[in-house]
Amino acid sequence: MKKVWKFLTSMKLAIALLIILAAACAGASFINQGQSYDFYAQMYSERAAALILALSLDDAFHSWWFIAINAFLCLNLLGCNLIRLPQLIRRTKAEKTPDPKTLISAGTREEGISDPKKVFESLHFTSPAEGSFEGKKTLSASKNRIGYWGAWVTHLGILLLIIGFSLGQMTHQEYTVYGVPGQTKMIEGTDLAVTIDDFRIGLREDDTVEQYTADITVQDLSVPDGARESTEISVNHPGKLFGMSFYQNSTGWAAKVGIKKSGNDLQNDVICAGEYVPVRDLPELVVFFNAFYPDYVLVPGVGPQTQSGQLNNPAYLYSLYYQGEILGMNVLMPDEKITVSDYEITFSEPQPYTLIQVKKDSFQSLAFLGGILTMIGLILSFYLLPEKILAVEEEDGTFTVYGHSPKGGALFKERLKKAVLAGKDGSQQ
Amino acid sequence: MLQVENTLFTIVMIIYFVSMILYFIFIAAKKETFSKIAVYLHLGALVLHTAALVCRGIGAGRLPLTNQYEFATSFAWGLSLVSLIFIWKFKFPVLGAFAAPVIFLIIGYAAMQSKEVKELMPALRSNWLGFHVSTAIISYGAFGVSFVLGIIFLLRDRMKEESFWGQHTPAKEKLDMISYRAVALGLLFLTFTIITGAIWAERAWGSYWSWDPKETWSLVTWIIYAIYLHLRIRRGWEGKAAATFAVIGFVCVIFTYIGVNTFLPGLHSYK
Ligand code: HEM
């Protein structure tokens, strides 16, 4: 048991896990994710495809082994932080005034200093504490003890980041709603209805798109006359209503499909490209709105295309189905109509629709907190390196200085040497 | 403004080139005069390079950090800046001789890209994107320096103490520390980059992390440097093993930057 715990909290395991994790991520990035057996079979070979599916390499980042690596990493981080906490607290407290014995044994030693205060000053230590050690007068100071916490805080941050991200993946809700101004649509699976009050496309002078903006109102329909909340959303500026985030995600074209029967209006529906409408009194007959071309041209060998985003020459690609069988597919111009027995079908009033993404991830702030802690931890680790020095008065009145910085290495030793020069009489710096 | 930038860019490239040659002569002739001139030219190039980026920014009316050309020239700028700081701080012109060719390669890569200024699609109009890319530049610059230091370390490992290398490069222990400082700077800024990128992605696409290849590779890079840090703590693994990881890390950086766009599909492909 003890052995298992020791292994679980070891840095050896940490390094091994990190190497495996890096290799797994790198490897997975070369395989197209979320494809079918046929796709992989064509891309590689049937054998490889079977292997990819068997090892979940088609969805590597949600596979059992990927989760397992991360779970072990979390255990490792948690264990390592738990073990190190008491010693960290002790160390931070104890080193307020550094222990001469350990400094003398572990530190860098410099002799013959007449003015030790200068050494402290030159290394930016404020107010060294006076004391004594084995009957000798001492001065000592420590700096950046908070830096000891850097790795600990970093580890905690990563732990929260992984946990927050994983919980978010497991629990988040995600929906899409789309429509044109005036339409109200339910967010499927919830009691919320979204009304699109307005949708604007901001163009620059050169006709490139600067911004997509939608005004929306959301109403809670779980109770009669439920609460309403409104907001404006645009790309990079999501809105928050009823605890959900609303993102202006993309846009497309919608149009009015008019159907007449024997010359009389039967129905008028606004639908988006990709949607269909059944004929009201003959539901087996379905009009499918395949695509819209605002500036239509027929390119030989390629097919229908649009030359620009401007409504210069609008055209509608539609198809008709009867009892599930396709009757035909064609391009329809605004002044044309489709005639099927008694019915006349026209397309008109093209307008952009907005596609809004709706999301709720209750653990996003946990992951964010993890990120912030990681950053703070790194700053502590890298830019607040703990340092301590001790000056001991020798019999001849000069001082011997011991300095130690666990992470300062050769650079700290060099700085100490320079500072010692300042503390030696007659030495010109 | 863009015309001025164009001219400045050419001048900057020439100065970097001359400075690189002088750094080489310094190594070959073992005369410090050359290294001094090289460092001054390096500084001059950096100043003009900064001016060029400012002109580009004014000309385009936004941060010059959005397409492949702008990012490449900014990357070279970041490496130039961080290497100059390290040369100056650690009195270490040999570093320049190794950094200069890398700077020159990156700025050469920039020169091959289209310089056309395009209006930004709405998703790219975000302050977070500005933070995201500017922190990436510093991070990549610092990793570039640690890469160069790693190579110097590995070379020095084979040289005698009393040789030119022994004289003009810091002791291995110090070299390892300097490389650690560079990785520390790089990793801190890479963390900023990833976090600001995640915030931007959340606001623009509704999802702060979606395992797109560029995201995945920035994570791989990040993990490589985390491994570097832990190896350094283990006795006996600092030095050579750490230096090797610093080199591998930068290969990942370059792959994240160029390889992902070239070989793997994803959201970041318009960059
Ligand atoms: C994703 C995972 C991890 C990351 C990003 C990470 C990051 C870091 C960082 C930034 C440092 C500070 C290094 C320095 O100041 O030079 C550090 C130190 C350290 N890490 Fe980790 N670490 C991770 C996982 C682990 C795990 C699982 C362990 C468990 C044993 C561990 C053990 C240590 C130890 C013992 C130190 C030295 C602490 C010190 O110097 O006070 N690390 N880590």
Q: Could you give a short description of this structure?
A:
The complex is a heterodimer of chains A (429) and B (271). Chain A is of the alpha+beta class.
List keywords for this structure.
heterodimer; A: 429 residues; alpha+beta; TATA-Binding Protein; 4 domains; six-stranded antiparallel β-sheet; five-stranded antiparallel β-sheet; 21 strands; 38% strand; B: 271 residues; mainly alpha; 2 domains; 9 helices; disordered C terminus; binds protoporphyrin IX containing FE
Largest β sheet strand count, sense and barrel closure of chain B: none
Overall morphology of chain A: elongated
Q: N- to C-terminal separation of chain A?
A: 59 Å
Query: What is the chains' assembly state?
Result: heterodimer
Helix/strand class of chain B = mainly alpha
Layout of helices and strands:
The complex is a heterodimer of chains A (429) and B (271).
Chain A: H1 2-8, H2 11-29, H3 37-43, H4 46-54, H5 64-94, H6 100-106, E1 108-113, H7 116-122, E2 129-133, E3 136-143, H8 150-171, E4 173-179, E5 184-186, E6 192-203, E7 209-220, E8 228-234, E9 239-241, E10 244-261, E11 264-272, E12 276-279, E13 282-293, E14 296-299, E15 303-306, E16 315-322, E17 325-332, E18 338-340, E19 343-360, H9 364-383, E20 387-393, E21 399-404, H10 409-423
Antiparallel strand pairs in A: 1-21, 2-3, 3-20, 4-19, 5-6, 6-7, 7-8, 9-10, 10-11, 10-19, 12-13, 13-16, 14-15, 16-17, 18-19, 20-21
Chain B: H1 2-29, H2 32-60, H3 68-89, H4 93-111, H5 127-156, H6 164-168, H7 172-205, H8 213-233, H9 240-263
Helix pairs in contact in B: 1-2, 1-4, 2-3, 3-4, 3-5, 4-5, 5-7, 5-9, 7-8, 8-9
